[in-house]
What does this fold into?
Amino acid sequence: EAQVTQNPRYLITVTGKKLTVTCSQNMNHEYMSWYRQDPGLGLRQIYYSMNVEVTDKGDVPEGYKVSRKEKRNFPLILESPSPNQTSLYFCASSLSLAGTGELFFGEGSRLTVL
Amino acid sequence: QKEVEQNSGPLSVPEGAIASLNCTYSDRGSQSFFWYRQYSGKSPELIMSIYSNGDKEDGRFTAQLNKASQYVSLLIRDSQPSDSATYLCAVNGNSGYALNFGKGTSLLVTP
It folds into this structure.
């Protein structure tokens, strides 16, 4: 089954404790992206990747890191989480290199930072 | 900052009526336009895409694009309670590397 898989789905952590949210897609998509969704603010892009070893900042990259060492995986790293990073996070992928095609979303990861 | 604007709603329509959802965007160089549906607690899913001026129909859904007015709309005919969700307008700008989403319009279809 074609899918984007995120883990963990739910996480409660404390300020400053490094964490990684994994994202994997099995559709051989070139393009992958991370979004966060907050009430009243909608979906905002954190980082995106057009291909292996190629990443770029989205609208809200502060406090996050990403890497794209393999085509299928695009982990999101929070080196020192803070309460303002409490949010619902979505990973998404697309076949189109330019991201103009359909975005397939993972099920989301709800993160709470205390 | 590329802006995509939507009324937050909620938009309430009776079952069987036409629901009309609207979206405006600021980047005049935008090339591709999408409507995503998001049920509460779920991830967004694509329902319509449109790339050229005019109407595009797919079942009960019609997307309308007017690039001169920088306006995109989604019509849902014969609305059903199962259409109750948040509808996100997404626009791909000149760079082609990012989809910018509106904050979404909440639609409630009442039986």
